């Protein structure tokens, strides 16, 4: 069993599940938003602002934002543990990997808060 | 104890990708990862567009006119291509999680389907953007 203190849930199985559930949510959100944009070629500010003013759209968007945060973390964590290894980087691998993960986590947190501000701040 | 040492010493450690000939499944896999990293970077761009377009009427027009710029169109095309490739390759993962297409041959076929479908979608995206 993989036990690594930096992964999301300290359980590979749970991370795997979180990645899948968030993926499905993100796929639905992306397809909805792309479909909306494709179906409304002459989109005005009033339409656009009206869409994001609706409560269901705000909840849907926040849900997608949470899913994005989880998904991005699991993905970037997976990549960092696969490539930022002692084989690739030698002795400094653990430090480099930890710093990379810290930056990813911090960036994702800032993006999440920014996203919440966009959706509910104004 | 001695058995352990013997086993450990025989573990293959060569995973140097430059010395391994990659099958099609490996290319779709690494593209899935590369597109994922691109999307992580792109979140900031997309949030900026959402923020500005929702902030005011003039912000909305600003994003709209920005998207008339050929370079901006190229960037958006790149981001959306990465997004849809990542989505399509992700759907293949879910299909494989359900136990379909996990074999050597069916796995290769799945990868080929991902490449063909993605190529079509990416071209259609280009048509939509331009």
Characterise this structure.
The complex is a heterodimer of chains A (122) and B (130). Chain A has 122 residues and is mostly helical. Chain A has a single domain (12-120), classed as 3 helical TM bundles of succinate and fumarate reductases (Up-down Bundle), CATH 1.20.1300.10. Helices cover 80% and strands 0% of the residues of chain A. Chain A has five helices and no strands. Chain A has helices at residues 12-39, 45-53, 55-83, 86-89, 93-120. Chain A starts with 11 loop residues before the first helix and ends with a helix. The model of chain A has no long low-confidence stretch (mean pLDDT 93). With 130 residues, chain B is mainly α. Helices cover 80% and strands 0% of the residues of chain B. Chain B is built from five helices and no strands. Chain A: Pfam families: Sdh_cyt (PF01127). Chain A: Its cofactor is heme. Chain A: A ubiquinone binds at residue 83. Chain A: Keywords: Cell inner membrane, Cell membrane, Electron transport, Heme, Iron, Membrane, Metal-binding, Transmembrane, Transmembrane helix, Transport, Tricarboxylic acid cycle.
Task: Give a concise summary.
Chain A is mainly α and 122 residues long. Chain A has helices spanning 12-39, 45-53, 55-83, 86-89, 93-120. Chain A has five helices and no strands.
Continuous helix count of chain B: 5
**CATH fold-level topology of chain B:** 3 helical TM bundles of succinate and fumarate reductases
**Beta-strand segment tally of chain B:** 0
Structural class of chain A: mainly alpha
Organism (chain A): Halopseudomonas pachastrellae
Subcellular location (chain A): Cell inner membrane
Binding site for heme (chain A): 71
GO molecular function, one term (chain A): heme binding
Strand and helix map with partners:
The complex is a heterodimer of chains A (122) and B (130).
Chain A: H1 12-39, H2 45-53, H3 55-83, H4 86-89, H5 93-120
Chain B: H1 2-9, H2 24-55, H3 57-66, H4 70-97, H5 104-129
GO biological process, one term (chain A): cytochrome complex assembly
Membrane topology (chain A): Multi-pass membrane protein
Cofactor (chain A): heme
